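Box 3.1 A note on notation
Throughout this textbook, protein chains are presented in two layers. The first layer is the amino acid sequence; the second is a token string describing backbone geometry. Keep the layers aligned when reading.
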Amino acid sequence: MSKNLSKYPKSPGVLKPSQLITTFGPGSIVQMLYDSVMVMGLQSWSTKDKDYIELYHPFLQAVLRTDKFKMPISVEKYRVIPCTSFPTWGVCSNKRCNRLQKHDISPKVGSNGFQCDVCHYPLFHARFIVMCPYGHVDEFPWEEWAHKKTESGKSCDKPMLKFYGTGYDPGLANYFVECENCHAEKVNVGTAVAEDGLKGLVDKCSGYTPWLGLDKYTKNCKGKPRGVQTRSTNVYFSISSSAIFVPKWLNPIQQRIDEKISTITDYLKEDDENYLTVAKKRIFEDIRNEYKEWTPEAIAEEIKRRFELSKTIGENATELEIRNDEIEELIKTDSYNKPKLKIDKEFIDNELSPFIAQLKRISRITEVRALRGFTRSQPPDPFSSEKDQLENVHYCRIGAGQKWLPAVENRGEGIFFSLNEDELKKWEDIPLVKERFDAMLEGLMDWAKQRKWMPREHFKPRYILLHTLAHLLIRELSLFSGYNAASIRERIYRNDTRNGIMLYTTNPSADGSLGGLVRQGKFNHFKNILKKSIHSSHRCSNDPLCAENNPLTKPKSVEEAMTRINGSACYACVLVPETSCENSNRLLDRQMIYNPNYGFFRNMKW
């Protein structure tokens, strides 16, 4: 936190800003070279403005109910993000020692890590913690575990623990803990991560939330504690939301409001009855003097749009509202050229016009992606609001009372296109489409119910069609664009009157991109790739099993019912890397593309 680093322990390592809002945000456990650390919550981060770049996106701020976004600045030998060692149990790296012992929350000044109390060899962390479904974590009860086979079941007065493996197999069943002081029978750690592995040792969750403060506990937690490995994928699931800049949020008035809001609000009290009136008046007067080409009515309208945005979208908004805001602008904008966004419309010939309504190359895209929380044990519902998460999926806060969220600004390129809306509505009315879609939607709802999810979106058949087509195009574009499939993301736009697909790639480290994706957005290239994608949907190396996967088949068990989330879709034909898909490879069916009876592109000429 200070440039004078000599009085602080050495930094355990370096993270990129983009990692802080995905894999390694507040509350996560990060495996560094010399230690395992937990990233502290926002309340412990630097309070100096120079340590961050302030980011704004009016609509995303309104949906997430936050004043601003901040992106930590990566500066060599300068610390912004605090962390604490967790877990604080380590195992000696000396194979002749293997002592299991507890250490401090940070190494001594001048030291890279922790050393064994006995032989002074470096320690590596003991990779077990206790976790409950509500997100609370705590130290693993090593002393109690080592003495669980004793008559008393309690630890001796001066435990001297040893952790070692037999060397025959890398599995947990071949690792043991024993006490060299009382010579209690050695205990296998293979069951430490079992559902009831801690029964009798830790029967009640401590409610510990170390990322919110090393002395912070939640009282009377009803979650069932269980042992997990620190590197398990279910220890941390980030909840992030993103929005791209569209023309209405890039006009000079909106950008000037961004610059002025933080300054004005610093001098105003939010509990003042005239807070909004005074703020809007000051902003109006300043902007009117600067932009004389704008009429007072136009300036007032922009200010009104900005300050009444929260009322417009409601209190329980989700990312779907962000998509609806974007699609309106993308549909009506044929040409636009600003530093953060560049759009060019492509001509569509008579052959594709029955299927494709619009095609646009987006040479510059600017996306703001913000972290708003996280879950443990199970991933969050991607289509729910923060209120839904709090009530149903054990949403965990990343700070205590801060009015900002960590975010990054990504820049890149993409392709946007929409299907013929009239033809799409006709397709959605086909009985076979409705029947197949209803079965998949029923499977999704059953699956979500098991996880206590409450999807608020009213899905329609068009979502499965758009989602599947996006996946097929991602797989095909990865062969021609110069980007691999994991680097190309999808944004599916769908409501009752609008539809669209954006396939894009963004990078926080540099402006612009390789240009390979935009090049494939030129009509002749896109037409060729679209036809190849549709043609590839006809076959799969797992056919006939994949093609015959029918969600209409009545399930014989709960496990079998879960397979009804998708129709004909597998990793050999439709599924893509998780980083590319917005819905974790759910609601996909290539039959909706090519099927001769009800596929949307069934009448396309080859």
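The two ends are 63 Å apart (CA to CA). The longest strand covers residues 356-375.
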